[in-house]
C-alpha cells in the first residue's frame, strides 16, 4: 500500500492538510507487511533475456525471455516474483539470439513487442507482435519487408505518442523510419529526417560516404539543454573512424535537422584506440547529459584505461543556434578497476557497461562482468569524487570491500550479462544477471537482491505517452495515464542537500533501446542521505510542436524524497499536465513529517524555536542554569542538547538527530566575524574529505540569519585534555604515541592530496573517537586551513606579499613563525612537535609563548633528537627524517608511516591495546599497565633486537 496524491498544473500550489497526510502515512506503515520471496526459484529462471518492459501496465517491469526460437513473457508480481503468462501461446522468432523492444506500435495503448534477429552478417530481420490485451496476451504477428544493417532503435519521432522504429537499410545503409499507428510497417517517417546522414560532406569529420557503426547503441536524449530529446547516431567514415551525428527537431515544422558540427570530432589521440559502446547519463550531476565511451587498452576490451566523455556544458550560456556550432567538449574520467579483467565475449557483449545510481548518492554508477577469482562475476564501478583530476570532478572505482551475494546456482556458473533492475519498484536498484549454469550448460537469469541502501532517498519518475489520459485500454478504473512510457521524455530536478550544497541533475527516459542496454521504463535519481524537499522537478517531452504550438515544459515544486511520480503530458495545446505522486513513506520521511507537523502547529510561538532568534538566545536556552525547558530545533531535524565547549572558531554544542537519535556536535559562529568566515572554509574542507578516515563525518552545514554552522560527528576528548587528566606522569606510552603519529600522517596524506594545509596541528586539535571508533585518531578544526594546490593538482602560485602567521606558536615551525608561506612540511613538523609534547609532557620553549623572538631562539637550540629519547630506533628515524627535510612541498608519507608503524609494533598486540586503552580510553574497570610493568614484546621485536636493547625497552 502506498500513499497517492493527484495533482494537475492548475492546483499544484494547493496546501495539503498536514495532519491528514501524517494520518495516512502512519496508517500505511501500520498496514504494511513484510514481503517474502519464498516462491522464487532456487536455481534461477530459465532462458536468455531478450528485453524488459511493463507488459501488463501494472507498474512493475517484466521480462521477455528467449528459449531457443521462442519468446515468453514473464510478469513481475508486487513481491518481485516472475511467472510465465504466454504459455501455451508460442511467440516464434527466427534466431536463437534476438533483442526485444517494448512499445506501443499501433497506437492502441497496449504494449507490443518487436523482436530483431540477425540472419546473416549485417542482415537483421524484424518481427512485430501486436497484442490486443494485457491479460490473455492475444496477438497478431507480421514481419517488416525491409532488412536492416543492425538493430534499430525505437522512439517517438513525430511526437504523436506512438512508438516509431528507426534503423538503417542493409543494402545501402540509408536511414529508414517506420511510423507507429494503424499502418505500422507500411507508413514511413523517413521524410522527417532532413539531410542525408550517410553523406559526410565538408564537415569537421572529413569527406566521403559514411555508414552506421555496427553494434552501436544509438541515443535519444537531450544534449542542447532544451529538455527535448535529440538523436545521436554512431557512424563510421571511410577510414573506419567513429563519427557522432546529431539530429535536432525543428519545433515549427516538426522535422529533424542534421547538425554536422554539433558534436566535435573525437580527439586525434584516440583515433587508434578501441572505443567500446557508450553509456549516457549525468555522471557529474551538473544538469548536463554526458556520453561516456570506454577506452579499451586491447582489441578485446578486456582492459579499460579510462572513459572518454563528451558533453555540452554551455547549453545555459549561449543560444541554441550557437551551441549547435560549438561542438561541445571532450574530457575523460579515470577508472580504478583494481586491475580486474573484464569478461567480454564478442558482439554478444557489444555493450560492456550499463548505468544506474546503485548507491543512490546522486552520481550514476556502472556495472559490468569481470573475471574475479577464476570466474566471471558482476562488478560495480562506483562513481566517486576525484581530487586533483584534470577538468573533471569524478572517477569510477571498484571498491575492494564490495561483496555481491550471488545465488548459489549463479555463483557456480558463468555470468554473461548484467544490468541494474528495480525489483518490486521500491527505488532500490537490484542486479539482473544472465548466466550459464555449470551443471547443464543452460542459459538462465536471476537477481542479486540489494534492498538495504541505508538512509538514502530517491526520486522515481515515469512519463507516459499522451495518447490518452484517463480510461485507457488495459488499465483499471483507478489507474492513470496510458501506462506506456514515452521514449525521450526528459526530467530534471534541483534541491539543496543536508550540507547546504545545490544539487541538480537530468535524465531522459529510455535514451538507449537497442543492443540489450536493458534500460528500465522509468527515470531514477538518487538523492543521497537528504530528507530535504526537492525544490523543482521539471518535465518535458518530444511533442509534435507543429500541432501543439503552446506545448510547454511543466515544473512541479516542493516534492518530498522517496516519491514515485507518474506524469501524463497534454494531448492538445489547451490541455494540462497531469501528475500522480506515489509516496513510499520510509521511517526517515515519516519522522521528517512529524517534525514538520510540530513546526507547522507551533510556528507562531517564537520562544519554542530559539534557534531562529539571536546567537546569545541560543546559548542561553541550552545553559543548564536556566529553568525553562525550551525546544531547540535546527533544520527541522537537529535538537540542541548542551554546550560542549568553545572551539578555535566558534562555540561547539551537542545536538541530537531526532530522526536517528544520534548524538552529534554542532559548531556555530557569526557569519561576518572571522570565526564565521573560517567556518565556511572548514565546511569546504570537511565536505571535500567527507567519509575519509581520521576526519569527522559532516552531516549538515549552512547558514541561518546571522550565523554559520556545521553539524558533524561527535568525538571523544582531545589529547591535551587526556594528558592533563592522567593521574600518573603527564605523557603517553611511546608506542601509543607512535600509533597516534602514524594515524596523523595518514590524515595529512589525505588532506594534502585534497590540496589543503591544516596549519594548526596540536594536541588540542587531535581527538579520539567514541566507541566503536575509540581506536581511531581524528584531526579537527580546519578554520586556519589553506588551499596550496590548484584543482588540477598543480602547486598554487603564491602572489601574496604580506603573509600573517597562522597557527599555534609553540607547535609551529620557525619557517611559519617568520611569516613565510607554509608548505606540507610545516604540517608534518607540527605533528612531530605534538608527539614530542606527548613524549615529554611539555616542550622546552613552553614558557616563551608571548615573546616570538625568544621562542624562535629556544626552538633553534632545543629542537633536536634529544626530544625523542623515549622513542625506539624507528621512532627516531621518523624524527630524523622530519628534522632534516625542511621546507619541502612533497614529503614521503609512506616512509614516515612505516617508521611509526614499526615503532608501534615493538609491543605485541595485547600489550599495546592495554596501554592504548589506559592512556586514551581510561575507565575504572582497567588495570594500570604501568603499575603491573606490563611489557610483552612482539615476536618481530625479539627477532631483530639484541638482548641489551630488549632490556632497555622494558625499562
Structure characterization notes:
With 955 residues, the protein is an alpha+beta fold. Helix content is 18%, strand content 30%. It contains 16 helices and 50 strands. The strands form 11 sheets. Strands 20, 21, 22, 23, 24, 25, 26, 27, 28 and 29 form a 10-stranded mixed beta sheet that branches.
Name the poorly predicted regions. Answer: 10-38, 202-207, 603-631
CATH class membership of the domain at 719-954 = Mainly Alpha
The radius of gyration is: 32 Å
- Biggest sheet features: 10 strands, mixed
Key traits:
955 residues; alpha+beta; Immunoglobulin-like; Phosphorylase Kinase, domain 1; 10-stranded mixed beta sheet; 6-stranded antiparallel beta sheet; 16 helices; ATP-binding; Kinase-like_dom_sf; transmembrane helix
Amino acid at each position: 500500500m502506498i500513499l497517492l496524491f493527484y495533482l494537475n498544473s492548475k492546483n499544484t500550489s494547493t496546501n495539503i492538510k498536514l495532519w491528514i497526510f501524517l494520518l495516512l502515512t502512519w496508517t500505511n506503515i501500520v498496514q504494511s507487511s513484510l514481503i517474502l520471496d519464498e516462491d522464487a526459484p532456487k536455481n534461477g529462471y530459465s532462458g536468455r533475456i531478450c528485453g524488459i518492459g511493463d507488459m501488463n501496465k501494472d507498474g512493475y517491469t517484466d521480462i521477455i525471455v528467449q528459449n531457443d526460437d521462442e519468446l515468453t513473457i514473464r510478469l513481475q508480481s508486487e513481491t518481485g516474483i516472475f511467472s510465465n503468462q504466454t504459455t501455451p501461446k508460442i511467440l516464434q522468432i527466427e534466431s536463437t539470439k534476438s533483442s526485444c523492444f517494448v512499445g506501443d506500435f499501433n497506437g492502441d495503448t497496449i504494449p507490443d513487442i518487436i523482436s530483431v534477429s540477425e540472419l546473416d552478417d549485417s542482415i537483421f530481420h524484424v518481427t512485430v507482435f501486436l497484442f490486443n490485451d494485457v491479460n490473455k496476451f492475444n496477438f497478431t504477428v507480421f514481419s517488416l519487408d525491409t532488412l536492416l544493417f543492425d538493430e534499430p532503435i525505437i522512439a517517438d519521432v513525430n511526437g504523436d505518442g506512438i512508438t516509431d522504429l528507426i534503423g538503417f537499410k542493409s543494402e545501402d545503409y540509408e536511414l529508414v523510419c517506420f511510423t507507429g499507428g494503424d499502418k505500422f510497417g507500411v507508413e514511413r517517417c523517413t521524410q522527417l529526417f532532413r539531410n542525408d546522414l550517410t553523406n559526410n560532406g565538408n564537415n569537421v569529420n572529413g569527406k566521403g560516404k559514411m555508414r552506421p557503426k555496427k553494434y552501436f547503441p544509438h541515443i535519444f536524449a537531450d544534449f542542447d539543454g532544451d529538455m527535448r530529446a535529440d538523436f545521436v547516431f554512431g557512424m563510421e567514415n571511410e577510414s573506419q573512424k567513429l563519427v557522432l551525428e546529431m539530429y535536432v527537431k525543428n519545433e515549427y515544422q516538426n522535422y529533424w535537422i542534421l547538425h554536422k558540427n554539433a558534436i566535435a570530432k573525437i580527439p586525434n589521440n584516440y583515433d587508434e584506440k578501441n572505443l567500446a559502446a557508450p553509456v549516457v547519463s549525468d555522471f557529474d550531476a551538473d544538469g548536463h547529459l554526458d556520453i561516456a565511451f570506454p577506452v579499451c587498452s586491447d582489441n578485446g576490451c578486456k582492459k579499460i584505461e579510462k572513459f572518454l566523455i563528451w558533453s555540452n556544458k554551455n547549453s545555459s550560456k549561449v543560444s541554441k543556434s550557437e551551441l549547435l556550432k560549438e561542438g561541445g567538449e571532450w574530457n575523460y574520467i579515470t577508472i580504478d578497476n583494481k586491475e580486474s579483467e573484464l569478461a567480454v565475449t564478442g558482439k554478444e557483449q557489444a555493450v560492456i557497461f550499463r548505468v544506474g545510481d546503485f548507491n543512490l548518492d546522486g552520481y550514476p554508477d556502472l556495472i559490468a562482468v569481470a573475471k574475479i577469482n577464476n570466474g566471471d562475476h558482476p562488478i560495480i564501478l562506483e562513481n566517486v569524487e576525484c581530487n586533483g583530476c584534470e577538468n573533471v570532478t569524478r572517477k569510477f572505482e571498484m571498491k575492494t570491500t564490495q561483496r555481491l551475494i550471488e545465488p548459489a546456482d549463479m555463483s557456480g556458473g558463468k555470468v554473461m550479462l548484467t544490468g541494474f533492475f528495480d525489483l518490486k519498484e521500491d527505488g532500490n536498484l537490484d542486479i539482473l544477471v544472465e548466466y550459464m549454469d555449470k551443471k547443464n550448460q543452460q542459459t538462465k537469469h536471476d537477481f542479486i537482491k540489494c534492498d538495504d541502501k541505508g538512509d538514502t532517498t530517491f526520486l522515481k519518475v515515469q512519463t507516459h505517452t499522451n495518447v490518452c489520459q484517463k480510461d485507457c485500454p488495459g488499465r483499471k478504473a483507478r489507474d492513470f495515464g496510458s501506462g506506456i512510457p514515452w521514449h525521450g521524455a526528459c526530467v530534471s530536478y534541483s534541491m539543496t542537500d543536508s550540507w547546504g550544497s545545490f544539487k541538480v541533475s537530468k535524465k531522459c527516459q529510455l535514451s538507449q533501446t537497442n543492443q540489450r542496454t536493458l534500460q528500465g521504463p522509468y527515470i531514477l535519481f538518487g538523492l543521497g542521505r537528504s530528507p530535504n524537499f526537492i525544490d523543482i522537478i521539471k518535465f518535458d517531452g518530444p511533442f509534435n510542436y507543429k500541432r501543439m504550438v503552446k506545448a510547454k515544459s511543466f515544473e512541479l515544486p516542493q516534492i518530498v524524497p522517496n516519491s514515485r511520480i507518474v506524469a501524463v503530458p497534454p494531448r492538445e495545446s489547451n490541455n494540462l499536465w497531469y501528475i500522480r505522486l506515489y509516496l513510499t513513506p520510509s521511517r526517515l520521511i515519516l519522522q521528517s513529517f512529524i517534525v514538520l507537523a510540530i513546526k507547522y502547529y507551533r510556528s507562531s510561538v517564537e520562544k519554542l524555536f530559539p534557534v531562529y532568534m539571536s546567537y546569545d538566545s541560543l546559548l542561553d536556552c541550552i545553559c543548564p542554569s536556566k529553568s525553562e525547558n525550551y525546544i531547540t530545533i535546527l533544520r527541522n531535524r537537529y535538537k540542541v542538547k548542551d554546550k560542549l565547549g568553545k572551539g578555535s572558531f566558534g562555540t561547539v554544542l551537542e545536538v541530537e538527530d531526532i530522526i536517528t537519535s544520534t548524538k552529534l556536535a554542532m559548531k556555530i559562529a557569526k557569519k561576518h566575524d572571522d570565526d564565521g568566515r573560517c567556518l565556511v572554509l572548514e565546511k569546504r574542507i570537511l565536505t571535500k574529505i567527507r567519509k575519509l578516515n581520521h576526519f569527522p563525518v559532516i552531516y549538515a552545514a549552512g547558514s541561518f540569519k546571522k550565523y554559520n554552522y556545521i553539524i558533524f560527528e561527535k568525538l571523544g576528548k582531545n589529547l591535551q585534555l587526556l594528558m592533563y587528566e592522567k593521574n600518573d606522569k603527564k605523557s603517553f606510552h611511546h608506542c601509543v604515541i607512535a600509533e597516534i603519529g602514524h594515524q596523523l600522517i595518514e590524515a595529512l596524506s589525505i588532506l594534502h592530496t585534497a590540496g589543503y594545509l591544516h596549519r594548526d596541528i596540536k594536541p588540542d586539535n587531535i581527538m579520539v573517537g567514541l566507541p566503536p571508533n575509540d581506536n581511531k585518531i581524528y584531526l579537527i578544526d580546519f578554520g586556519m586551513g589553506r588551499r596550496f594546490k590548484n584543482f588540477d593538482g598543480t602547486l598554487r602560485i603564491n602572489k601574496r606579499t604580506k603573509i600573517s602567521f597562522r597557527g599555534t606558536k609553540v607547535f609551529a615551525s620557525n619557517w611559519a613563525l617568520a611569516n613565510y608561506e607554509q608548505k606540507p612540511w610545516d604540517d608534518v613538523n607540527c605533528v612531530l612537535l605534538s608527539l614530542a609534547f606527548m613524549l615529554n609532557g611539555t616542550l622546552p620553549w613552553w614558557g616563551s609563548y608571548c615573546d616570538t623572538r625568544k621562542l624562535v631562539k629556544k626552538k633553534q637550540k632545543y629542537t633536536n633528537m634529544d626530544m625523542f629519547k623515549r622513542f625506539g630506533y624507528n621512532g627516531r628515524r621518523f624524527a630524523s627524517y622530519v628534522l632534516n627535510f625542511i621546507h619541502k612541498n612533497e614529503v614521503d608519507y609512506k616512509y614516515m608511516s612505516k617508521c611509526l608503524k614499526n615503532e608501534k609494533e615493538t609491543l605485541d598486540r595485547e600489550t599495546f591495546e592495554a596501554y592504548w586503552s589506559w592512556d586514551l580510553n581510561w575507565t575504572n574497570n582497567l588495570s594500570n599497565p604501568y603499575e603491573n610493568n606490563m611489557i610483552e614484546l612482539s615476536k618481530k621485536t625479539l627477532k631483530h633486537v639484541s638482548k641489551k636493547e630488549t632490556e632497555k625497552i622494558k625499562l
